[in-house]
Amino acid sequence: MPEIKRLSNGIFEVIKDKKHLATKNLDSGKTVYGEKLITVEGVEYRTWDPRRSKLGAMVLKKFNTPLKEDSKVLYLGAASGTTVSHVSDIVSEGAVYAVEFAPRSMRDLIGLASRRKNIHPILADAGKPDSYSHLVEPVDLIFQDVAQPNQAEIAARNAVRFLKRDGYLLLSIKARSIDTVAKPKEVFKAEVKKLEQAFEPRFEILNAKDLMPYHEDHLGVLAKLK
Ligand code: SAM
């Protein structure tokens, strides 16, 4: 019989043969990216692969993930929806505004959203929040995984438009998308400084850790508005 342990709101550890990070499946019987379905005490869970999800890795690296059942989330860099699907499980009574600019990924995301009513796919450039401001309400959390050189600026532009005063930013910074030759540690330091000082609004950093062993040369950051 598998065992279940609650890690935080909507996030679980299922123990079956080994430990799996997991969320409760909002779309019963269906998988999204080949993950396992495990039923414990009549509840179906989907395993969450931290090697395919920066947010999953952040959970295992003990970041506080400030999500509740009714949270509103702006997700920048949604790709085909691997992680978006887990956020959708967690905020089952809330909403995920999923921004992605690659049309191929957007097709998958639209398919996912047709089965999960809390996902709102938006085909747009995350660097141009004005272009989707009519589609997004004020949010409790911005999650950003765009792997772009100007990611601190993108975060600030979206935060000023959409983040509630007491909301949070969770960000994945990929060192190589900013500088291919500099040492990742130096890149991370500079990016954190940009978040703290370079743009308006400024952020207060609450936690910053590398995402090893799940993602090489990536920094996870949790921040709130200063
Ligand atoms: N977060 C996804 C997950 O865990 O399933 C993976 C995201 S992938 C590393 C980065 C994604 O960001 C790509 O799909 C890319 O097309 C998208 N992206 C990059 N720059 C963007 C931008 N300016 N606006 C919207 N999407 C962007």
UniProtKB/TrEMBL annotation:
Keywords: Methyltransferase, RNA-binding, rRNA processing, Transferase, tRNA processing. S-adenosyl-L-methionine binds at residues 82-83, 100-101, 125-126, 145-148. Gene3D superfamilies: Phosphorylase Kinase, domain 1, Vaccinia Virus protein VP39. GO terms for biological process: box C/D sno(s)RNA 3'-end processing; tRNA processing. It is an enzyme of class 2 (transferase). InterPro entries: Fibrillarin, Fibrillarin_CS, SAM-dependent_MTases_sf. One of its GO terms (molecular function) is histone H2AQ104 methyltransferase activity. Its EC number is 2.1.1.-. It comes from the Archaea. Belongs to the methyltransferase superfamily. Fibrillarin family. NCBIfam families: PRK04266.1-2, PRK04266.1-4. Involved in pre-rRNA and tRNA processing. Utilizes the methyl donor S-adenosyl-L-methionine to catalyze the site-specific 2'-hydroxyl methylation of ribose moieties in rRNA and tRNA. Site specificity is provided by a guide RNA that base pairs with the substrate. Methylation occurs at a characteristic distance from the sequence involved in base pairing with the guide RNA. Interacts with nop5. Component of box C/D small ribonucleoprotein (sRNP) particles that contain rpl7ae, FlpA and nop5, plus a guide RNA. This is Fibrillarin-like rRNA/tRNA 2'-O-methyltransferase. The gene is flpA.
